[in-house]
Recover the amino acids of this structure.
């Protein structure tokens, strides 16, 4: 988002983007967040601003962080939720498979770093 974008406009855009990425209508998001559909519409158009409680409900329903919705984080996905999911899978593996997973993750990280290095040149 450009630096000149007002924080409230960032919220409106991020809310709409996250909702559309989850393929939810305003009504479906409202239902998941236990809000009125008209409230989601007002938040997306900027005619109303959510309370802290409603901001948290929206973030939870969309599985994003409040920081993402407020423009304080660039990534939409909730890192903690992803880490929890990975940990659950990893802890269920045998020691042998954990070592294989470690090797695979290290290989992916190296590949990503090489790709990043090539892109910077």
């Amino acid at each position: 988002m450009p630096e000149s974008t007002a924080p409230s406009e960032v919220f409106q855009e991020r809310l709409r983007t996250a909702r559309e990425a989850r393929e939810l209508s305003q009504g479906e998001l409202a239902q998941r967040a236990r809000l009125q559909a008209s409230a989601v519409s007002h938040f997306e158009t900027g005619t109303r601003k959510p309370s802290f409680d409603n901001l948290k409900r929206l973030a939870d329903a969309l599985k994003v962080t409040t920081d993402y919705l407020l423009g304080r984080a660039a990534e939409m996905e909730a890192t903690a939720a992803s880490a929890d999911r990975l940990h659950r899978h990893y802890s269920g593996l045998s020691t042998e498979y954990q070592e294989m997973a470690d090797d695979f993750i290290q290989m992916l990280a190296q590949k990503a770093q090489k790709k990043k290095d090539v892109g910077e040149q």
